[in-house]
Batch of 3 targets.
Target 1
Amino acid sequence: MNNGGKYFSGKTDQRRLSCQHCDDSGMDDDFMINANLARKYAGVLMVVNSGARCPVHNKKIGGVANSSHVVNVKTGRKAKAMDVEALNWWMVFKIVYGLNRAGFKRIFIYITITKTLRIKPKHIHFDGDHTKPQELLGIKTYHKGKSGGN
């Protein structure tokens, strides 16, 4: 089965982890080791929505200025964040369990609320940015066209 090159597994696909605007790559090595460990603990494939972003792409999609996704080749800054799809609540549970077990302490679950007020998971953001507050598990509402930009 062809996965379209967007599954994060033992063979990490750089196209989905690189900036979708300029193709800059630069995921932090320690972050990726822990992310791979989290995937193993979760026991599910993680579909990557967003990895590294250049400052231009981050601004274009509404990301915050100090986003942990931002990579800067000129300064050597590496990305320490990833967004992965969450297709249902069972998958959310498995991924959050794996992230927690792998030592991630900043996890945000993005949700959508349907017209019938059904709450559905959209994606999970996690990062390994120790310059930001730790031990956070949050839920954020997803707004079309904006990721909320951690």
Target 2
Amino acid sequence: MLYVYTFFDKSHDGRPLLTCVHDEDSSLTKFYTLYIHKSGKSIYDIEKSQESVKKIIGASKKVVLNDYKQHIIGFSIDQYNNKVYDLPLPKMTADSVKGAKKKAVKIIAAMKKTKPQIWHNVRANAAVAYADLQQRGIVIGYRDIKYPQWDIDTYSGRSRASKVSVQGMTDHDIYNVRGGEIYLHFDWVSADIRMVSILSRDERLNKAFKDSDPYTYMTEQLHRHVDRDEAKRSLLASIYKMDYNSIAMDFYSGLKEWVMESSDSLTRTGHVQSVLGRKFKLEGDRNRRSVFNATIQGSVAHAMQLCIRRVWDLFPSNLLIENHDSLVLTCHNEEEIVPIVNGVCGVMVQPFKSIIPKGMMFPTVVSIGKQYRNWQKFKRFNSIEELDEWKKKTQARAKKKKVREFKKRRTLKKKILEKQEQRKPEEPVNKVPVVARPARPISGNKSSESFDLSSFSQSKASPKTAPKPEQGFNRSVWGLDGQEA
């Protein structure tokens, strides 16, 4: 296993300052001095070291490192290794080569104590998509290209865009650098509560997402004794405040038991785990509620990180932005809408496919519009079965449309041919008979129309030869009449 730690500066793209590479199998540690202050290295040597680190990361069978997104940008990595594990480590500064090397050795030793888990690999794979979004930028206001700095090193793992806060923008003048006039918005239905239903395994809460949402379902089951807004406030407050005594907790009894178990776990072990096993510890200034909430937020972050990489693999040029629980893509024409909806919903409806057993469906709402955040609801998919059924219907409609267009073209062609056959040529008026001209004889007697080339050449004077007087000097010919010689 290979361990890599790199110090980056605080610039937008984060230039690499110094990299430490440790091979666990051979117990060898090597340092690559890059753009750190007073390194004494030439640009040629730095670029050569960058290329070496790039090859090491790409060729290794298993790599554990810090901030894979910054490694992709800083080392221009274009061949992505799927066996990379991204550890969420604090960002360290490096002022000198000697000091950086000492820090790197200690950090590598701490990294070796951490067992790589699946959620580390999920982070690394998502970093590929975030690196592309960061380098590509977005167009704001028709002309200006802005470059948000994407960060997933938050406490819960949820993404955050700094420098340019595109996630909170409501401006309609946001465009894809790679074009696209149609916006497609893919949004999970109550993503946090959906994750709570999966973690708690509450039967009622899971059932609520099949055709509705937990707030509407609760209102209907209680026969309108509480309205939807009251049900929503009660459920959210009960979860995030870890309050067991509420209408929502009494209604969703399985949820109540899970919250109580999580509270006991914090008391006994000092931590709780996300859906993929990430531990959130009760340490520092973190209180019980913030750690418990991070379990929910972190689990949703896992789902989005899985989705954004898979969607990026399918539609890299169409992906515009990730907005916590939703993705926004663009396309150029209506013919692209159905393939994008099929592909993206196939990912977002089942984000944990091949990782967690079946039953982890996330209802997804698709909205379409001609401006950013100015879209209308198009379709909701509650399960992969609904999506498959819709695919069949759209394929059948597309086939019928092609048949109709073919028949229409064939009918039009037939009508044109019939009109051409019915049209008769007009009779010519005062038609003059054309008499064939006799051919010129090649041999024998000359016809009256033939030319005597010999007589023609004799009768015509050469244009370059002046006329000659027949007898002596004829004065009248040269216009000298009446003049003395």
Target 3
Amino acid sequence: MAVFTLTIADADVPRVIAALCDNFGYAEVTAGNALAGVMTYITQVVANVEAAAARQAALATLPPITPIAVASSPPVAALTATPATGATPRLVTADASGSSDPQGLALSYSFDFGDGFVLANQTAATASHTYSTAGTYTLTLTATNTAGLSSTGSATITVTA
């Protein structure tokens, strides 16, 4: 137990003792209960100081916390398009369900069908579009994770007349 010295100027003794006793529920200040009030107060102060010192000592035994930087990786974009060839009008379904994120983060998908038709920021992993003009188009998928990292995949669509 720690040792404390309480020094009170003589003129302040009655006021200090009365305040201490009031805090501990004594109706009237006498020499006996004044001493009891002071002792109760001092005991609580000592207990609080010792508890704080014990907490500080326990914290001092813990190893230091070192922040770890976790590098986020972009998702892996995987795209299939079916059918990839055919005559106009050609309905093509883009499927990004094979896309994944190494951290397990949620993905959003943007599909650029290469003819000016774009579906951006979709939660669905599939999208369909009808090509009405013959030509060769690059269908591009952008898969983006919730950390804002993205990757792309593409497929070639050939539409004949």
